[in-house]
């Protein structure tokens, strides 16, 4: 009995020791997890509660061009994080920033005036380290947009505080572009605003490689950049579109003035409509470009009208309204081809009176005027075609030369020129290629409509011939496209009220080369005074640059 009791005591002691060992092991393992295994994660969690979070890369998916060249999330820059009032108090720190950033003293003061708290300052790539300074933290930061703001009106912009797309592709594909990837930097400062413990990164990556995460466009980065550079060099406002004749792909879409996607607030109350995509979002009188519509209507009505002679005396009178021709002394007798090349108002008003406004409007609608082309952007507008009483009486005079209440977008003009270049076939023009993964794998192609026959091939070929004659012998003969295979197009000068005053905008839309066209290019210049003087030279520059890059 005594031995049994001793064994029981011994067994209990062993069991108690075993329990203590297990408890100690569990505590040791827990301590290991807290202090070693999960140290970094827990440290970040603690910093999240008391530190300052800084996004060092945008948690949005990429937008890229047709060749997967990134149009967003591509610019990385060395960035300093420091408190605003620390810079203002510490002359040594201020001197360092002036020497290693892109600011001069005045620019730095202006920058600081618009900031508060912990601010970021972009540094030069070769910026020197600032030894033993606890007031500043330097790291690499990825920006959503770069300084060029290339294709800004198509890409759009985001509400940064809510990570929500507000315009363009950013808005249309917001759900796709809200990335699950995230990279933040957490900084903590002491009571003296010294940044303590350095910084800790919080990285979260989407592990599913097949999740839709980006948008691939049809735009060609090189062509887009080239067209934007031309607009910048010429210092003009307006828009331009370049399309591939065979596919209907938009290769470039430019709108000016440009805007800074990182700071859009300053553009909201400006009169220059900098935030508007003027290629699709603003409609203008087409001026003499609308003579193409009248020409196509006349050719379809009677193809032999080419043989008719017109007489221009320098003006036309309709009821009590007088409309002058571009040549106030009159062109005299002209064929239809000559009237088109010289952009004779008198001949086309006579032609419009013969056809009637209803037939011209019917042709306009077939060509896509008065309706959205639907290229995949929400901001596109329909433009305007006159109806009802606007078509009656002397209104035919303005209709025949593209004035009055007719309003079109550069995209609609492009669509018309694409139909002519494709011999009457309407392509479904688009700017979005599809949805991709973050590695560029195509998940879903953008749905395009089938090609549609809208005009007879014969009259489109005649129209092409007339458009080529405009470049060789007509209003655009100052252009020199001989070395790139020639081209065709039409000038337009349109009167309109702009910024509360009457002005004249300049148009040129056409194709190149003249045989088997590959590209359609539309150029619109605000307050250009004439299409021949303002828009045609830019068309020429764009065509030559594309030709040079394709050799």
Quick synopsis:
The protein has helices at 2-37, 39-50, 84-89, 91-100, 105-113, 152-155, 168-172, 174-177, 221-234, 291-301, 336-341, 345-355, 357-366, 395-400, 410-421, 457-473, 531-550; strands at 52-57, 63-64, 75-83, 118-122, 136-143, 158-159, 164-165, 182-189, 195-204, 214-217, 238-244, 250-256, 309-312, 315-318, 321-324, 332-335, 425-426, 432-436, 442-445, 452-453, 488-498, 501-512, 519-525.
Characterise this structure.
The protein is of the alpha+beta class. The chain folds into two domains: 50-217, Alpha-Beta Complex (Penicillin-binding protein 2a (Domain 2)), CATH 3.90.1310; 221-259 and 282-550, Beta-lactamase. Helix content is 35%, strand content 23%. It contains 17 helices and 23 strands. The strands form eight sheets. It has a five-stranded antiparallel sheet, sandwiched between helices. Helix 9 runs antiparallel to helix 17 (531-550) and helix 10 (291-301) crosses helix 13 (357-366). The longest helix has 36 residues, at 2-37. The protein starts with a helix and ends with a helix. 41% of the residues are buried.
